[in-house]
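User: Can you predict the 3D structure for this chain?
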Amino acid sequence: MAARELGLPGIATSGSRLSRRQALWWAGAAGCAWLPSALAGQLEEPLTHSVRTALSAAVSNAAPAVPDFPSTERRMAYLRWLGAMSDRLQRRKPEFQTRVEFLQTVWYESKRARLDTTLVLGLIQVESAFRKHAVSRVGARGYMQVMPFWARVIGDGDASRLFHMQTNLRFGCVILAHYLEREKGNTFLALGRYNGSRGKAVYPDAVYAAARHWAHPDA
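Assistant: Here is the predicted structure, written as structure tokens:
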């Protein structure tokens, strides 16, 4: 599926942007823990009281990640997606139940934050290579490499909880949605802000390239 069909910008083939082949190399099967821009992370910025309150409320709900479907058709679409993604993720997460719980939570949290699930999976691949306890050189944690300061700014102050699967995915999705709102829906700039490299192409292009692997009609 083309990037434009995912709602993502295309990957340029010349100029300052990475070529698709280069981006795929950066976003390779081992993940991008060694990607230069992946050494960065979200930057702590001043938040208005209203924004801080809204973000705190968005991460505070501890309800289990159980998708709810308005129709049998929607549920069947989800199950088709789940089966396809489980097959693709098997090499990285061999244990079936762990894999299904992870994918169910990614689906739930991305939909809850009104994000493209395919984009979120691409971001996770680039950030942590699907490793739950990944830690970057600057201290970003977990699947979505959330910086510890977020636990203090909008959470309960316990940064160790960022290694909990649903907590990490909840924070990561809420933060990315916040950046998308700040960038008026521009995914290129929002991804750069998530990585602390706003305006540079390496990181967004790597996420777009990784997202292609997780594209599915029912996503």
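Residues 81 and 216 are 7 Å apart (CA to CA). The first helix runs from residue 20 to 26.
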